[in-house]
Amino acid sequence: MCHHCGSPSRRSFARFLAAGAGLTVLSACTPEGPKAAPSSSAASSAAPSPAAASASAGTTPDAATVGQSPEVPSPPASPSATLARQFSLTDPASQWVIVNKHRPLAPADYAPADLVRPAVAVSASGEAALLNSTTAAAAEAMFAAAARDGVAMVLASGYRSYGTQMTTYNGYVAARGQADADTASARPGHSEHQTGWAFDIGDGGGACSFQPCFADQPAAVWAKANAYRFGFVVRYPWMLHPVTGYYYEPWHLRYVGVEAATDMFSRGISTLEEYFGLEAAPAYL
Fold this sequence. Notes:
Layout: E1 16-18, E2 21-23, E3 115-116, E4 131-132, H1 133-148, E5 153-157, H2 162-176, H3 178-181, E6 198-203, H4 218-226, E7 232-234, H5 241-244, E8 252-255, H6 258-267, H7 272-275
Antiparallel strand pairs: 1-2, 3-4, 5-6, 6-8, 7-8
């Protein structure tokens, strides 16, 4: 169910129905400020990702040689271990940094040193029109490829500073209380937008911005099928909120590099938590 699909909206996070069940949007893409909304429940209980499952038992020798200890099985490698290039999962300047409800940025008030405005169609203004230079270049290539396929894509929201996130989150807390605020807004220092590696897209027609029905718009359909070719993943996939902590956001793209994004796509791995062998993060610790 979608409300106001025909009019553009910077942020719309009301209760919606999806797949026949009522879901409250849990979003890292926070709106401008608190608005009255029905109370929402807390995030779902953690469900361990396949990569976080316990290691399978290794093969024990039939008879250990006298004086030697039996072979101790090694823990399974994360799916990402097959890649030749490795990047930090904690450095916010790294394209593989993992930011979620269990993994805040360090430092919390990190700001990219290379913010630029990409040469793409932009509906955002101010800092929200900026990305780090690597993400901006990849976005330009992706938007151009989408245009060649007849799909109009718009940058709807990019960088968000720690200060902006603080103001937004505190507004939600004041209006709803912290428990409810945590279902609608990322805490300061816990948002991918602060890194410059992530941004939200809109459709050129302006329909269904930041609403569940955006999943059916041309820009979202194209991005889901092609974004990996430019180094992007849809960060919060459908029905994986017990892992990511956020309900489906077909508009939120995250740059991880062509190699990792293509590997995830070809192997059917949907979340960064699973890909990098990290625990699920459905709620704040």
